[in-house]
Amino acid sequence: MNCSPGSVESDAQLRDTPEPCYAPEWRWPAFFEIKVYSRHPVMAVVVPRDFHMSVKKNDWVRSYSAGVWRVSSEVPSHFEPRASLKDPKELYDGPLFILKRLVNNKWTKAFAVETAHADFVKPLNKADTKKLESFISQNADILSDFETYDQPLDSILNIGFALKRKTDLTKLRNAVAQELEEEIENGVTCDRILGAIAKTSYAEFCGETPQSATLQFVNFGHEIRRRELIYRKMVGLDF
């Protein structure tokens, strides 16, 4: 069985995306669209490791998304979800930071939260630093709102299936739920999920094309246990 996860960039957006994806930070063939958990794009700029060390919690930075961001935290070291239990386990080649945005490139309030690999995060230059200091001194109310702003980031694991009938989606979900039983409530790893799928009669359709259904697993707030991403919710999607 070669179940290709779809995506685990973070987030509610992925749950609403019309296309399968798996790759946030973590992704794979069948479902890999966000690049937060997958390998860096070929065009990624390689930054020396000592540069990464200069970025720390509460630093103001620029990221690949527009605007001025502040480093909220660093996601702990963890394994990337794998497409098959036969694949080697590999640690995500971080660091991976959780960032919170204060303003956009027009220097207007634009709160947001995202994750970004250290290769795409850099400290503000002198010009931006001066602009930020001026903005903060003139907008104490916005800064106060920023400090209390919180938007949890979820990581999404999408596993695609080439089911023959739409009615099979419910049966697939029930079969996997039965294998996992109450474990999902306490949190399960990607490997446990793949193991559960392998025991169902739908294992042969996992990762096959054309994809017609998806089992989506949600990791809330980048929960990690023993270097494993922990998933606590399963949803069946008919695409």
Strand order of the largest sheet: 4-3-2-1-5
User: In sequence order, what are the helices and strands, one letter per element?
Assistant: HHEEEEEHHEHHHEEEE
End-to-end separation in angstroms reads 20 Å
Helical residues, percent: 10-25%
What would you call the shape?
elongated
Summarize the main sheet: 5 strands, antiparallel
Task: Spell out the key features of this protein.
239 residues, alpha+beta, 2 domains, 5-stranded antiparallel beta sheet, 3-stranded antiparallel beta sheet, 7 helices, 10 strands, elongated
Give a structural overview:
The protein is an alpha+beta fold. The chain has 2 domains: about 10-40 and about 155-235, no CATH class; about 50-150. The protein is about 25% helix and about 25% strand. The chain contains 7 helices and 10 strands. The protein has a 5-stranded antiparallel sheet, with helices on one face. A 3-stranded antiparallel sheet has the order 6-7-10. Strand 1 (about 60) and strand 2 (about 70-75) form a beta hairpin. Helix 5 packs across helix 7 (about 190-200). The model is unreliable at about 5-50 (pLDDT under 50).
